[in-house]
């Protein structure tokens, strides 16, 4: 047996052996460090409508009116079409959210009148991982409750106008006409101890052809956020900006950015609402939900603050988030956003385009199809024989015909919206450059789910047929 004395080993080898020993010890210690597990407990909370916010537009009858009203139990029971309580189950999860410095920069810009735009310095937002309480998207009763909250955001409540509290400049509006139908509205649901707060943002109330209380403002917001270029569909349309080049599919990017920056967006109004909610409920868990345009706005607010958000049947929000310089694409796939929808809804899958489509008749350019976060899709076309129909876009249809039929429609898996491309026909260029920019918000081909649903909603005829029945003239 050979005995090796350490004193006879070369100094370099001694150092090497010492380092190897330290490395081995550190590995053994690392194995003994227990990785923290997520809490297995899933809290259940019962919520009811507590507050309604109303934020008017900058050019409405009462510019920038911002007010709220606290709801009493005897007021919400007057309307029997509405449920009065909602039970939600949460789960603890690892999620990505913007770092505090980026959120603070957005807030500070709004204080200086920039309305949450990256006007002076465009840079990516940085994300950090954290553990938080999020909606349990595998729990069907919770998804049904959130959908019903979004539906109730459309319904009128018999309220006493004298109880409104002005958050901005005070107005004597109790007998004024028109302010209630201008702007965006948010419904606040809370449990008894205010541990869980849900903000439901009101979406498009417009009839596609007859208009609605906030129809024109909804249309402007839809077209600036969810069209490829200023809602430039054809020479027959009046676009919301002039960034397109002739009759070709070319769009000037810096022009588009400037128009978005100066446009009056519901996104800005929703940020004012969520800021007041966060101040009031500093120690509460906050979630956001919404349907259609309200869901699109909810998603953008969720991306801004990293707030858990569940939406229903929204148009693709990825392009809008990139134009606002919010997290989007692959970087946002682990953010706490879930978008529920089905393949018979032409707006959700991005096929409500073309001269014979319902959106065309109504003056809506709903051209985007790609979503941030994760999508949760029922394939109602291939698996259940549904036809693509704008009337399927009503959240009431999702509630009654899908969520209340668990045997026929189990909850779908929620996955990132990969292999998706927006506005593939368009070329985006900057007038300061000498070459066109890429058109898509993703570099891959369109998804199989969306492709499989293309039908008469996108077809073109020389003599377009009469528009179908307006789906928004009935209850959403």
TrEMBL record:
Lineage of the organism: Eukaryota, Fungi, Fungi incertae sedis, Mucoromycota, Mucoromycotina
Keyword Magnesium: no
Region of interest (Disordered), ranges: 435-476
Record EC number: 3.1.1.3
Annotated Gene3D superfamilies: alpha/beta hydrolase
Entry protein name: triacylglycerol lipase
Signal peptide: 1-30
Organism: Mucor plumbeus
A Gene Ontology biological process term: piecemeal microautophagy of the nucleus
Catalyzed reactions: a triacylglycerol + H2O = a diacylglycerol + a fatty acid + H(+)
Subunit structure: Binds to both phosphatidylinositol (PI) and phosphatidylinositol 3,5-bisphosphate (PIP2).
PANTHER family: LIPASE ATG15-RELATED
Enzyme class: hydrolase
Membrane topology: Single-pass type II membrane protein
Main subcellular location of this protein, as a coarse class: membrane
GO MF entries: phospholipase activity; triacylglycerol lipase activity
Biased composition, class Low complexity, residue ranges: 438-463
Keywords linked to the UniProt accession: Autophagy, Endosome, Glycoprotein, Hydrolase, Lipid degradation, Lipid metabolism, Membrane, Signal, Signal-anchor, Transmembrane, Transmembrane helix
Any GO CC annotation of this UniProt entry: vacuolar lumen
Subcellular location(s) per record: Endosome, Multivesicular body membrane; Prevacuolar compartment membrane
Protein family according to the UniProt entry: Belongs to the AB hydrolase superfamily. Lipase family.
């Amino acid at each position: 047996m050979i005995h090796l004395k350490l004193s006879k080993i070369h100094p370099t080898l001694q150092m090497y052996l010492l380092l190897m020993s330290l490395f081995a010890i550190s590995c053994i210690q690392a194995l003994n460090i227990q990785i923290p597990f997520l809490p297995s407990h899933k809290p259940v909370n019962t919520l009811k409508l507590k507050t309604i916010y109303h934020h008017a537009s900058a050019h409405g009858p009462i510019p920038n009116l911002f007010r709220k009203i606290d709801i009493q139990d005897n007021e919400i029971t007057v309307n029997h079409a509405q449920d009065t309580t909602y039970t939600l189950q949460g789960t603890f999860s690892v999620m990505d959210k913007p770092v505090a410095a980026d959120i603070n920069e957005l807030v500070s810009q709004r204080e200086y009148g920039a309305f949450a735009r990256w006007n002076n310095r465009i840079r990516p937002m940085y994300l950090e991982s954290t553990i938080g309480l999020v909606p349990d998207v595998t729990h069907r009763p919770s998804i049904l409750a959130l959908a019903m909250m979004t539906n109730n955001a459309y319904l009128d409540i018999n309220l006493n106008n004298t109880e409104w509290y002005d958050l901005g400049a005070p107005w004597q509006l109790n007998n004024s006409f028109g302010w209630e139908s201008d702007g965006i509205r948010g419904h606040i649901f809370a449990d008894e101890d205010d541990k869980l707060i849900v903000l439901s943002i009101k979406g498009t109330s417009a009839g596609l052809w007859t208009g609605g209380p906030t129809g024109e403002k909804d249309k402007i917001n839809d077209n600036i956020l969810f069209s490829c270029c200023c809602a430039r569909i054809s020479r027959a349309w009046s676009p919301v900006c002039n960034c397109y080049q002739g009759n070709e599919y070319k769009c000037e990017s810096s022009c588009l950015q400037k128009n978005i920056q100066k446009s009056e967006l519901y996104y800005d109004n929703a940020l004012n609402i969520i800021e007041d909610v966060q101040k009031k409920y500093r120690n509460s868990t906050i979630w956001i939900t919404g349907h259609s345009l309200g869901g699109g706005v909810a998603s953008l607010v969720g991306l801004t603050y990293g707030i858990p958000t569940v939406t229903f049947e929204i148009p693709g929000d990825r392009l809008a988030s990139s134009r606002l310089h919010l997290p989007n694409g692959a970087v946002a796939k682990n953010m706490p956003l879930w978008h529920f929808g089905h393949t018979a809804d032409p707006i959700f899958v991005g096929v409500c385009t073309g001269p014979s489509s319902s959106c065309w008749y109504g003056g809506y350019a709903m051209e985007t199809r790609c979503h941030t976060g994760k999508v949760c899709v029922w394939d109602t076309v291939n698996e259940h024989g549904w036809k693509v129909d704008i009337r399927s876009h009503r959240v009431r249809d999702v509630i009654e015909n899908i969520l209340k039929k668990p045997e026929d429609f189990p909850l779908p898996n929620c996955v990132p919206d990969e292999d998706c491309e927006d506005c593939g026909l368009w070329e985006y260029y900057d007038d300061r450059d000498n070459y066109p920019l890429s058109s898509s918000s993703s570099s891959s081909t369109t998804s199989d789910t969306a492709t499989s649903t293309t039908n008469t909603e996108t077809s073109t005829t020389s003599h377009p047929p009469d528009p179908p029945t307006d789906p928004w003239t009935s209850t959403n």
